[in-house]
Amino acid sequence: MAQTLEFPTKLQSLFKPSRYNILYGGRGGAKSWGVARALLIKGLEKKIRILCTREFQKSIKDSVHKLLTDQIYSMGLESAYVVQQNAIKGRNGTEFSFEGLRHNIANIKSYEGVDYCWVEEAQTVSKSSWDILIPTIRKEESEIWVTFNPELEDDETYQRFVVNPPPDANVVKINWNDNPWFPEVLKQEKDYLREKDFDAYLNVWEGNCREVLDGAIYAAEIRKATEDDRFTNVPYDPTKPVDTFWDLGWADNTSIWFAQQVGFEYRIIDYYQNSQKPLNHYIQTLQERKYIYGNDFLPHDARAKQLGTGRSIEELMKATGRKVHIVPKLSIADGINAVRTVFSQCYFDKAKCADGLQCLRHYCYDVDPESNQFSKNPRHDWASHGADAFRYLAVSIKKDVQAPTMNINIPTSWMG
Question: Domains along the chain?
Answer without folding.
Answer: 3-204 (3.40.50.300), 219-415 (3.30.420.280)
